[in-house]
Amino acid sequence: MCYLFFCLYIAKGFTFVSSFYQQIIPGSATIPTEFSNTYQLKLRETINSKLFQTNPIKEKQQTKAPHLLSKGLKFSRNLAKKRPGLFSLIATREQNFKRKQLLNGQCQRHGVRRPPFHYLMLVNHQHKMVFCYIPKVGCTFFKRLMLILKGKYQNGSSPYDIAPTKIHTLRMNTFSTRPRKNAAVLKAYKKVVFVRDPYSRLFSGYLDKIFLPQQNFKTLCTYIIKTFRKSVVKNSSIICPVDVTFEEFLRYAIFKSEESKKNDHFDMMHDLCGTCNIKYDIIGKLDTFVPDLNLMFEEIGEGHRMSAKNMLTERVGDDLTVVVDHAFHNKNNTCVDFSQILRRTWRRAQIRGFVSMDLDFPFTNNQTLFVTKQEFLDTIKDASLVSKNDKSLKVIKNEAMSYAYSTVPMDVLDQLEVLLKDDCLQFGYDTRPKHVFEANQRTWNFNYFNV
Fold first, then answer.
1. d(CA 418, CA 431)
2. pLDDT computed for residue 428 by the predictor
3. CB 181 within 8 A of CB 116
4. Averaged pLDDT of the chain
5. 166 CB contacts (<8 Å, ≥6 apart)?
6. Into which family does the record put it (predicted)?
7. First to last CA, the chain
8. N or C: fewer beta carbons within 10 Å in the chain?
9. Is residue 361 within 8 Å of residue 346, measured between CB atoms?
10. How far is residue 352's CA from residue 317's CA, in Å, rounded to a whole number?
11. Integer CA distances (angstroms), 163 to 64, 258, 343, 368, 371, in order
C-alpha cells in the first residue's frame, strides 16, 4: 500500500514538473533527458523573462515613485534653505574622518615621541572642549575665539572685537599641572587642533617675526647672523641685524629643533600638540578654514549662533590693524629706520595677498616721519579695497613663498624635509612640494623682500 502511494506521488510530481516546462518552454512535453548547451541557454533566458516580467501590482506601486521622489527633493530643498551648510557639513565630517584615519595610521607606524600634557592646550568647560593652539596657525584668532566661547568678553560676538593685546591680560583656562585631572578632561571633552602646510607655516614665521621687525627683533636676528652667517665673526658687534635671509632663518629653525629648549613659533606641530598621544576629534586646516571651523561650532553646540564665513570677512581689516599697531609701537623700540618698518609693513600686506603688487608704497622717506598711525592705516586699508578685484592676489603669496625657497641651497632643503616629514605625513601634505624643491629652477626677475 505504501509503495502504491509512493508511485502516485512520483507520478504527480513528474506531471507538475512537466507542466512547468510546458509553461516556460512552449513545445516541451517532457523533461529532456540530456541538457545540451543550447537548451540550457534557452532555459535560462526563458526563466529570466518569466522572473522579471512586468508585475501589474508593482507597476501600480511604481507610479507613485515620481511623486515620492518630488516630495523627497522638496524636503531636501526646504532643509537646505533652513540649514544651508548641512550638506557641506556632511562632506566636512567625512573629510575629518579621513584625516583622523591618516593620523592614526602614521602614529601606529612611527609611535609616540613625547609624553603627554606638555602642550599648548586651552580648556573650555562650558562647551566641554580642549583646543590645542599652534603659533602661526591662526593662534591669535583662536585665543580670542576661546575667550568669546568662555563668555569672558561680553562686548562683542566676534573674535575680532577683542584687541590682540587682551589675550595676554584676560585669564584663559589651560591644562592643570595634575596629569590625572588632564586625563579625565581629555577623555570626556572634544579635542580640536588646527594645522597648516608646514612649509607655508615656516615662511609665515619668517615674514612676521624676521622680515617685519618686532620688539625682540634685534636679539633674535643678531643671534641668527652670528651663528649662521659665515662671513661674520661671532664676537663682532652688530649694530642692526636688518638683513637676515630666509636661508639663515631656516638654518636657525633646523638648529633649534635639535635643542631641548625650543621656539614654539618654529617647533613642529605634532610635537606642540602631541598628535600621537591625544586622539583629536577634529583636525582642522587653514586650507579649509571655514568648513572646518563650522564643524567645530556644530560639535560644541554653537552652529546656530556662530558662522566662520562671517568671521572670515573681518580677517583682512583685523590683520592690517594689528600689523600697523605693531609698526607704530616699535617706532622707537627697534634699530630699524621707521621708513623701512613702514615699507616692510606695506610689502607684507602685498605678499599676504591683501594689497596689489601694482600699488607702490605711497609715502616718501620724509613723509614717513610725520604720518600718523590712523593715516597710514586708512591708506593701507584703502589700498586693500582697491585691490579687491585683482585676480593676481590669490597667487602672489605662493609666488613670494616659492621665491623665498628658491634662495635656499638644496642641502638645507634636504635637512628641512627631514625636519618637516612627520608633520607632512601626519596631516596629509607633500614632503617635497614642487613649489619648494623646484623653485630654484625658475628664473626670478623680482625680489619680493627688497624694499
1. 9
2. 97
3. no
4. 81
5. 144, 147, 153
6. Belongs to the sulfotransferase 2 family.
7. 115
8. N
9. yes
10. 13
11. 60, 35, 24, 25, 23
Q: How many other CB atoms are there within 10 angstroms of residue 96's CB atom?
A: 22
How wide is the angle at C-alpha 204 spanned by C-alphas 396 and 247, nearest 5°? Answer: 95
What residues contact 10, with CB distance under 8 A and at least 6 apart? none
Hey, what's the cell of 38? 543550447
The three cell numbers of residue 25 are 518552454
The owner of cell 618686532 is 214
Instruction: Decide if 267 contacts 113 (C-beta within 8 A).
Output: no
Assign 170 to helix, strand or coil: coil
What are the Cα distances from residue 111, in Å, to 43, 97, 101, 271, 420? 61, 20, 15, 12, 16
Inter-CA distances, 420 with 205, 222, 289, 339, Å: 14, 25, 22, 36
Residue count (the chain):
451
Can you tell me whether residue 282 is helix, strand or coil?
Answer: strand
Residue 40 CA to residue 43 CA, distance in Å, equals 5
| Amino acid identity, position 45 | E
For residue 419 the three cell numbers come to: 625636519
The residue ranking higher by pLDDT, 76 or 142, is 142
Strands (E), 233-312: 282-285
| Spatial CA neighbour of 272 closest among 343, 204, 362, 201 | 201
DSSP state letter for 382: H
Instruction: Name the phi and psi angles at 140, rounded to 5.
Output: -65, -40
DSSP reduced 3-state for 385: helix
Query: Which of 10, 45, 41, 38 shows the shortest CA–CA distance to 24?
Result: 45
The count of other CB atoms within 10 Å of the CB of residue 47 is: 12
- Would the pTM count as exceeding 0.85? no
Handedness of CA 114, 119, 125, 131 (dihedral sign): negative
Q: How far is CA 434 from the centre of its chain?
A: 20
In angstroms, the CA 150 to CA 126 distance is: 7
pLDDT in tens, 394-432: 899 899 999 999 999 999 999 999 999 999 999 999 999
Q: 354-363 burial string, b = 16+ CB within 10 Å, else e?
A: bbbbebebeb
